[in-house]
Design goal:
The longest helix has 18 residues. By secondary structure, the chain is mainly β. The chain is built from 1 helix and 9 strands; from the N terminus they run αβββββββββ. Helix content is about 10%, strand content about 30%. It has a single domain, classed as Sandwich (Immunoglobulin-like), CATH 2.60.40.420.
């Protein structure tokens, strides 16, 4: 999928607004250059919130998913309650990334994460609404190793 420069800028602006409106990670991501710079305090989930790092080739569930946390995996399964806010943090990635839906129901495609951009938008946030049992599958448009799904429970 190819996006125009205007679409990419719109994605970035939308992500910044959503990130600020939802409270993001409390503004704690500045200065994060690699996965080891992400501290436990940065990833302390509030109720009905999940935080996932998108890295180059893998992801890490920090909190909020029913599955085990802090394991590096390429194919993520994250089981959450209906209405959970998910934050996907790209700040430790050095390659291009864009999370896009696969099938329906679907999450909204993320902005293009470009570590060389100015400004860099390090977080993509969205709310998972649907019916218990729904599976929201996704993949990364630029890193074929990254894919996964969010599964909704009551």
């Amino acid at each position: 999928m190819v996006h125009s420069l205007k679409q990419v800028r719109t994605f970035k602006a939308s992500a910044v607004v959503l990130f600020l409106a939802l409270g993001g990670l409390g503004g704690e991501c500045s200065g994060v250059k690699n996965e080891t710079d992400v501290t436990q305090a940065m990833t302390a989930c509030q109720p009905k919130q999940a935080q996932i790092s998108v890295l180059d080739g893998t992801m890490r569930n920090h909190c909020g998913c029913q599955e085990s946390t802090d394991q590096l995996i390429a194919n993520l399964t994250c089981t959450v309650s209906v209405g959970t806010t998910v934050f996907m943090n790209y700040s430790a990635a050095s390659l291009l990334h864009q999370i896009v839906p696969v099938g329906t129901p679907a999450i909204q495609a993320s902005h293009l994460y470009d570590p060389e951009a100015d400004p860099v938008v390090p977080v993509y946030g969205f709310i998972l609404n649907g019916t218990p049992g729904d599976h929201f599958r996704f993949k990364d448009n630029f890193d074929p190793r990254i894919e996964g799904e969010f599964i909704l429970v009551p």
